[in-house]
Amino acid sequence: MTPIIHIENVHKHFGRIRALRGVNLDVSESEVVVIVGPSGSGKSTLLRCINRLEEYDAGKIVVDGITLDSTQNINAVRREVGMVFQSFNLFPHLTVKQNLTLAQCVVRNRCNEEAAQVADTLLKKVGIPDKADAFPMQLSGGQQQRVAIARALAMNPKIMLFDEPTSALDPEMIKEVLDVMTALAHEGMTMVVVSHEMGFARAAAKRIIFMDEGQILEEASPQNFFISPQHERTRLFLSKILHL
Amino acid sequence: MVTKPDLTTQEERKIALIPGAEPSARIDPWWWLVVLAVALAAILIFTQREYNSIFRFILPGLRITAVVTIVSYFLMLIFGMIGGLGRLSKNFIFHGLSSLYVEIVRGVPLLVQLIMWYYLFPSLVQTLGDRTGIEVLSSYRSDPIVTAIIGFTFCYGAYMSEIFRAGIQSIPKGQMEAARSLGMNYIQAMRHIILPQAIRVMLPPVGNEFVSLLKDSSLVSVVAVADMTRRGQEYMSVHFNPIPVWLFIALMYLIMTLFSSRVVSWLEKRTRFER
Fold first, then answer.
1. A89, B174: Cβ pair inside 8 Å?
2. A94 with A104: CB under 8 angstroms?
């Protein structure tokens, strides 16, 4: 089966900093991949390259059969790829429901009752149907992030990207967001998640990828990754974050 | 048991906690100054024969002042929008042109620019017409009001560009990224996400530009536009009564500027939202 995301020898520079140094990665449909690694390792950059919020300098990325090489097909790809950000990035001037319906209307030409129904269904799914008419600032961080997930899902994406979705949340709110993500994973959504939540990685990931200094150092199933990491750098990283 | 007032929105609940800030008491007290100025003008017009005659004489000028100000204002908003987006553009030519425009226009006094549009520009067009033998150009005569509107739009558009640039830049980058990641293109994201938020930031300076423009519109009196100031000069040169004429004209400008500032601040309050 051809992978839904194909990343081949991708390089990316920020001025003199080499953020990605020849990354290769294939993600197949319905797979949940969690990317971990120290800060500055290029994991967020890699994620942002997948929907072209960052342009890469060399290499090749193919998403759902569309090669990301020119400006013309960016929007085609972005329609298939949902993204959830660390800082939620909800639209503060719109209500929760409008946050969910706007892009449906503008991008998918779905402006009527149907869009509203999609919004209602998704808000129910992420557990906050009663907040439809609230403004983002009236919600807690956890609720905002769940709205952000619903907003991305409203576009019926084939792939969901999560860029440290729980890093800006109070500890109490992390679980409610992870629960939504876990449910999504069980439904068979293709997900690429940059996260430090090892519990989530263990429970939902099919594969864990460890990145450092712009390269993928190790790929393993969750069991192997935590129990018998192959690389010295991975062991060091795990010992630090798991407080062993 | 304590009975709670039935207030629906959070906003109203918060306001109810502040004495004197209940929704009913929220009329801006500065409106009274507008009322006072209007009342004073009305009294002068209806009780004093001299002021009545001044008023009737400058009325066509008042209309021209209003037309020039309002038309230029809407045109300069469009200019400012294009200029502001140009300043933010990654396109080398678009960015370069708009930056050049902003820097040059802001460096030349408005009065000089108006004079240039009135005297230099037609002369240039005519010379061009004579050289190329195009009849339409060599017989070109400038219309004073159109010239004034072009002059204001061109000059104020540069300042407006900077306001638009700053307003758009004040919106966090993540908003654009979120909009783009949902599949919106640049124009859709600007229209639905960035500009509606930026407008709230830009409203005070953009509104102030209207007030400034209203006052600066008096400069057109030097390029043969019969605006309110010019009509005042004409009236004074016939009747030799500078005191009532200029007091009255100042009062008329004051009424218009006070009124527009109030409208701006009312709009500001209406469009406020929590970030």
1. yes
2. no
